[in-house]
Amino acid sequence: MEHAIWTEKYRPKEFSHVKGQKEIVARAKAFVRQRNMPHLLFAGPPGIGKSTLALVIARQLFSDSWKQNFLELNASDERGIDVIRVKVKDFARTKAIGDVPFKIIFLDECDALTKEAQQALRRTMENYTQTTRFILSCNYSSKIIEPIQSRCTVFRFKPLDKKEVFEIIDVVAEGEKLKLDDKARDALVEVSEGDCRKVENILQSAAAISTTITDDGIYSVASVAKPKEIAEALSLAVKNNFIKARDMLLDTMLRYGLSGHDVIKQIQKQIWSLDISPNAKVRLVDKCGEIEFRMTEGSDEFLQLEALLAYFLLVGTENK
Asked: 272 in helix, strand or coil?
């Protein structure tokens, strides 16, 4: 019961529950104060508060009647034209309950909507402006057709920075009585890349093993290699020790269960810490992009990573 009370305490209903995004939250608060707002488009990476802010706006506007005035649809599940023509129109054509003159329809992951559904949505947004406001959420605003973008005020969310991720970690650690040292906190920031959802999922998985969480546990649960292991393999390749570098990289991949795409992203990050010239680093990053493209096209991952390490060796030899 204690856990349920704690969960309810942090259920998204206050603007303070949206971490980071200070400018966006300030503008959302102004809309709530005026009890009026345009159609909104939330764009940005996953796990940074887009859906949370939509829920908070609804709860702040409608108070206890928010469920009757708020329709949430996940466009990745229901993304055909029939959803827009039936569900959305049926909800939009009725008046709101209470003193707010409009309802809210929240379309999550709307970049998954087909082009036909987006065209239908465009007309619906025009026809029911008097009774309904739309909040659209997407990871890539470029996948939303221009007519819809021009009808919305666009809010561009950014990944959470280190300080904000630490705040989330501290709240969860306090509520769940977890112990984390500084290395574990830094590892969580590194692995999550500013994604709040990822932070909480990794913490939950690590806490299932032990309430004392270490950086080793974080990397193991997240299936991510330690940065120093990748850096060491690259350093060996640059220093003309190809066989040892290849064996170390292969061992790291097998130990953490990494795919070639996972490894290539980590390699790209570690290039900048190598002791080589800036020009050589740029060439290596360019090569990473080429190797990643080949993997995407279906090439053998191990062969491509070997080819990349061989290129590291050549660049290291030239750099000397």
From this structure: helix
Q: How confident is the model at residue 290 (pLDDT cuts 50, 70, 90)?
A: very high
What's the token pair of residue 320? 């000397």
Closest CA to 249 of 275, 222, 261, 231: 231
319 alpha carbon, distance to own chain's centre: 37
193-252 pLDDT, tens digit per residue, is 888 888 888 888 888 888 888 888 888 888 788 888 888 999 998 888 889 999 998 888
Give 295's Cβ-side CA count (13 Å radius).
21
Please tell me the distance from the alpha carbon of residue 221 to that of residue 200, in angstroms, as a whole number: 12
Partners of 40 in the β-ladder: 135, 153
CA neighbor of 208 nearest in space, from 241, 182, 178 = 178
Which residues are CB-contacts of 232 (< 8 A; sequence separation ≥ 6)? 248
The bridge status of strand 132-138 relative to strand 39-43 is: parallel
Contact 213, 184 (CB under 8 A): yes
Q: What is the mean pLDDT of residues 124-137?
A: 86
Q: Which helix (H) or strand (E) holds 232?
A: helix 227-238
pLDDT at 6 over 50: no
**What gap in Å lies between CA 141 and CA 112, rounded to an integer?**
11
Q: Are the CB atoms for 78 and 114 separated by under 8 Å?
A: no
Ordered domains of the chain (ranges, CATH)? 2-156 (3.40.50.300), 162-222 (1.10.8.60), 227-319 (1.20.272.10)
Bridge partners of residue 156, in order along the sequence: 43
Cα-atom radius of gyration of the chain, to the nearest Å?
24
